[in-house]
Amino acid sequence: MSSPWFISVKRQTQPAIRLFCLPFAGGTAATYRSWANYLPASIELVPVELPGRGMRFSEPLFVASQPLIAALAEAMQPYLAQPYLFFGHSMGALLSFELTRWLATHYQSQPQQLFVSGHRAPHLAAADTTTHQLSDPDLLQKVRTIDGTPKEVLEQHELMQLMLPILRADFTICDTYQFQPAQPLNVAISAFGGFQDPMVKRHDIAAWREHTTAEFQMHMFPGGHFFLQTAQAAFFKTLSHELNQILVRL
Fold it and tell me: Where in this chain does the record put each Thioesterase domain (predicted)?
């Protein structure tokens, strides 16, 4: 793929289906690079690289969801001729949901399935919407409590100073998000959560059921907000099983 928005991990001439993966707050496309080793071979993994990070570090950061969704949806158009899927964790789950809505409304296109992870259903109000307003030290402490960033990264002062604007911009997107009621999606949703996630409870994950008229599945795993890392084997087994079911139906 030639677009800066997408990182091709294992390029396929005619993949059976494309899996676009959207990052959590502060995350990059690199988060998903290793996933190709765990997923069915006929799936083309396409991590999404948002502006302001990774190879796009010099580009302006988005601080609102709608302009970001509109730009991403436009960039995706050359790559949606074949069946596709969305996966998003935390902020990425919210973005993938709104992206699905946007594509249906503006491009009459939709993914085969939506995988949302580590985020409450979008109609549920956030318990705290002030994270983006925290001081730099308090914002970094908040990131430490979420426990998804390696300790050795958190201890690199210069690296964290580079990360702060990205984190603040992403938390601004999440904190200022306003859900707009609409008809449920006609897209199957699979929602994933961690049993010990202090921010997103089981009922927050279950509430995603309200946003689809198609099939809904919920999967809970041991671990906190980043159960994707701590329960990796179980997570990939579940995700691969669902992907294989989709492949059979194509």
Answer: 18-241
